[in-house]
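queue> pop job 88
queue> type: inverse folding (structure -> sequence)
queue> payload:
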């Protein structure tokens, strides 16, 4: 119903616009029509983003396509459509839209971050880092912690622990209470055999979120940290969480087998 009302408002606005243009010059008519199309494209883009956030991808894509038709030179419209296509696993079409959006707006940090994440998620982590760095180079970027966390995660995928740590330490200074940042730093320090620092960020993670909400791989990581530190009680407690919430996982099988170093 809200969607229909929004479209009705847009239709009425367009009708008023056209009536008002009846006695205008051709240049004024053209300018007003372009402005009207831009407003309607913005409305469609808002709807596309909302539906995307709700997981209604088919409806989101239909709205994004309308936004592109109404404003074919709007980089944001192509960027949003790319995200939706990527979520639908239409990889080739998503990449085409990302690249076209970046041609239209080569210095847009949000587009750079989103394309970098897309590259990482499609098996091209090594290529992704340049795009995160490009986003971070823009001092006007309002959410640099996104690119920092993405850069950290993709560096971890490459087993580049020093680089991952550099990204994530910058991220934790900006937004200290983000669970994924602290979990990433646990992994970085564990892999670098700095178990005290790993335990420090594990404690921080425990203050941000509950153990019940952790994935099997994060719980297993915490168990391995406590095992290295010789804290049998903490290890057993985390093992109970792993058993209670992820008993069918490979991580629980590894825990049962005592495969702490594999």
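queue> result:
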């Amino acid at each position: 119903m809200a969607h229909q009302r929004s479209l009705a408002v847009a239709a009425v606005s367009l009708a008023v616009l056209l009536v008002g243009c009846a006695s205008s010059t051709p240049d004024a008519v053209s300018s007003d029509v372009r402005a009207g199309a831009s407003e309607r494209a913005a409305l469609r883009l808002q709807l596309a983003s909302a539906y995307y956030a709700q997981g209604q991808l088919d409806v989101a894509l239909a709205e994004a396509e309308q936004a592109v038709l109404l404003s074919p030179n709007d980089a944001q419209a192509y960027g949003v459509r790319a995200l939706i296509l990527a979520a639908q696993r239409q990889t080739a079409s998503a990449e085409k839209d990302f690249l076209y959006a970046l041609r239209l707006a080569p210095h847009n940090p949000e587009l750079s971050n989103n394309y970098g994440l897309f590259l990482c998620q499609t098996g091209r982590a090594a290529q992704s880092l340049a795009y995160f760095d490009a986003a971070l180079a823009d001092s006007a970027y309002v959410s640099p912690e996104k690119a920092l966390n993405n850069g950290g995660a993709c560096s971890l995928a490459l087993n580049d622990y020093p680089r991952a740590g550099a990204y994530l330490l910058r991220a934790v200074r900006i937004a200290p209470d983000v669970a994924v940042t602290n979990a990433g730093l646990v992994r970085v320090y564990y892999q670098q055999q700095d178990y005290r620092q790993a335990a420090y960020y594990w404690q921080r993670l425990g203050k941000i979120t509950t153990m019940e909400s952790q994935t099997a791989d994060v719980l297993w990581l915490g168990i391995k940290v406590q095992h290295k530190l010789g804290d049998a009680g903490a290890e057993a407690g985390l093992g109970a969480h792993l058993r209670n919430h992820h008993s069918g996982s490979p991580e629980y099988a590894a825990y049962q087998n005592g495969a702490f170093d594999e």
